[in-house]
UniProtKB/TrEMBL annotation:
The chain holds residues 112 to 409 of 413 of the full protein. The keyword Metal-binding does not apply. Involved in targeting and insertion of nascent membrane proteins into the cytoplasmic membrane. Acts as a receptor for the complex formed by the signal recognition particle (SRP) and the ribosome-nascent chain (RNC). Interaction with SRP-RNC leads to the transfer of the RNC complex to the Sec translocase for insertion into the membrane, the hydrolysis of GTP by both Ffh and FtsY, and the dissociation of the SRP-FtsY complex into the individual components. It catalyses: GTP + H2O = GDP + phosphate + H(+). This is Signal recognition particle receptor FtsY. GTP binds at residues 105-112, 186-190, 250-253. Residues 271-284 form the SRP54-type proteins GTP-binding domain. Keywords: Cell membrane, Cytoplasm, GTP-binding, Hydrolase, Membrane, Nucleotide-binding, Receptor. It comes from the Bacteria. Its EC number is 3.6.5.4. It is a peripheral membrane protein.
Length: 298
């Protein structure tokens, strides 16, 4: 089995395919910058991040008198690392007991999978974990979480067809009573009809705050890297509604749209606590700006 870093690299090679060839033995001229612009846009970095990177790069080329492709590649690598560095932060554990973590994301983003991976990850750090099946609108999501909990010896607080806020409220109390370290609440990614998702999630957040002062301590959004610019739209909408404290970016093990992280760094620099690079439990890894920039450039 390949290491996760190898998978990140080979995954992002779909993104970097447009970038790798560009720098080989070329003159540093307008054609190079144009090719780079196209490649960055193709990677879903978006206009803003692409222009920012290109302008900074041109300036660097001028000031440092860079004269070949390899030097320009290195300069772009440095700029990418600088841009992505603010996203490289980790979730601080032990600030509260329980640390209450609310997890949001549209259906299919990889929310349930990431919760399972994160629970395992936390347990490996000696943290006890309790889960709340807060997506009461989707029976399958609840069942999936319960089955996962049984298999992994993690208590899952649930209630069929109940009110999500009530389930999560109960779970906070259960976690306090049992002196659990981290309580993670799954939430709905889509509602059946008329109800507004953001309203529902805001209500959950409010009720959690009533169950415990200062909670939720973290509000994480799970996004699927493959959705590219659409992921940025989700980040903005959820952040506006809930005030996000962190992101989990999934499916970086096979995306052509890895540039989306540059767009996020420019427009909504919310820490990327973890990245998903596969479907199994150890495929959740901390985000590293340098590793990511290297993988992106192929
Ligand atoms: P949810 O609807 O947001 O709860 O999404 P799920 O957790 O059910 O995930 C949807 C699909 O994406 C499942 O098939 C997962 O196995 C898959 N998935 C989740 N995270 C990753 C990842 O990092 N890489 C890959 N390749 N697949 C993932």
């Amino acid at each position: 089995r390949q290491s996760w870093l190898t998978r990140l690299r080979s995954g992002l090679s779909k993104t970097s395919a447009g970038l790798t060839g560009i720098f080989v033995g070329v003159k540093v001229d307008d054609a190079l910058f144009e090719e780079l612009e196209t490649a960055l846009l193709m990677s879903d970095a978006g206009m803003d991040a692409t222009e920012f990177l290109l302008e900074s790069l041109k300036q660097k080329v001028r000031i440092e008198r860079l004269s070949n492709g390899a030097q320009v590649r290195e300069a772009l690598r440095e700029l990418l690392i600088e841009l992505l560095a603010p996203l490289e932060r980790s979730m601080v554990l032990g600030r509260a007991q329980p640390l209450v973590v609310m997890i949001a994301g549209v259906n299919g983003a990889g929310k349930t999978t990431s919760i399972g991976k994160l629970a395992k990850h936390l347990q490996s750090y000696g943290q006890s974990v309790l889960l709340a099946a807060g997506d009461t609108f989707r029976a399958a999501a609840r069942e999936q979480l319960v089955i996962w909990g049984e298999r992994n010896n993690v208590t899952v607080v649930e209630q069929s067809g109940g009110d999500p806020a009530a389930v999560i409220f109960d779970a906070v109390n259960a976690a306090r009573a049992r002196r659990i370290d981290v309580m993670m609440a799954d939430t709905a990614g889509r509602l059946p009809t008329q109800l507004h998702l953001m309203e529902e999630l805001r209500k959950v957040k409010r009720v959690v705050g009533k169950a415990m002062d200062g909670a939720p301590h973290e509000v994480l959004l799970v996004i699927d890297a493959n959705t590219g610019q659409n992921a940025l739209t989700q980040v903005k909408a959820f952040d506006d509604a809930l005030g996000l404290t962190g992101l989990i970016v999934t499916k970086l093990d096979g995306t052509a749209k890895g540039g989306i992280l540059a767009a996020i760094a420019r427009q909504r620099p919310i820490p990327v606590y973890f990245i998903g690079v596969g479907e199994s439990v150890d495929d959740l890894q901390p985000f590293s700006a340098a590793e990511f920039a290297d993988a992106l450039l192929g």
